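Q: Could you fold this chain for me?
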Amino acid sequence: MADANLKFASPRRVKRSGMVIIMSRILSYEKKDTWIHELSGFTKLVFFLLWGLTSALTYDTRVLLVMIVISVVIFAVSKTQWKQVGAVMKVILLFMVINLIAIFIIAPYQGCEIYGSRTDLFPLAAGYVVTREQLFYMFNILIKYFTVIPSVFIFLVTTDPSEFAASLNGVGVSYNISYAVAIALRYIPDVQGDFRRIRNAQEARGIEMSAKAGLFDRIRKTSSIIFPLLFSSMERIDVVSNAMELRGFGKKKKRTWYSAKKLSRNDYLVLAFTVLFCAAALVITYADGSRFYNPFV
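A: Sure. Below is the predicted structure, expressed as structure tokens.
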């Protein structure tokens, strides 16, 4: 089972018209020889939750910059390739820019209220003046994204769904919920594969959906894939649910896991580092009674 999953999630080479096209799957688990891949799913879940919580609570620029450095280092050590996360990263960056613009439009002086001062830099439009405090506040929001995004990617592409489900069940989560999470993670490459097959079928019928077509034309034509993709997904859900029901899934209160993994020395070291770092980060953040680092005082 494990070997089949690894083959399914790994890139596939397809020869077409004399060219070799590498078809990789986005945000899918891929086994690699790194110590991060060997960590328990429970360890990576705790790291992700504590890391995200710390990033959400703190606006201390010093803490956030250290978290970015650590995130980038871990991302590099995990050997995660850009083709695995690039498409999702571009979408996140787009929404991040939209979010920052919306913040400035709705609350152009929020930073001034937070830091208790106002230093005008230049007028932008009627009623809008760019201030140093607002730029610093928006900079903190920007780097908060980059503290969490790498941890999300690492969690998804380095965690075996079955092993992660076993870890969840091991800490008290119902095995029905744990197995649902595992199926959801495994379903990501399935949906991507169905999307590619439907798109290739549409292109074979003469519907241009590549970069040769205009952006809005591609969006309109790509939206036509939604219904075939939805129907194929419902069919797969029906097959899986029937198979699980026939095997008596959910009848017993407990179950064993083939992919269960015990915590190793590296797991304990990572857990200890995560707890100590997040605790220290929050102590530094709230040392002066506020979670906002104020360089303007």
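A (continued): Strands lie at 12-16, 19-23, 120-125, 128-131.
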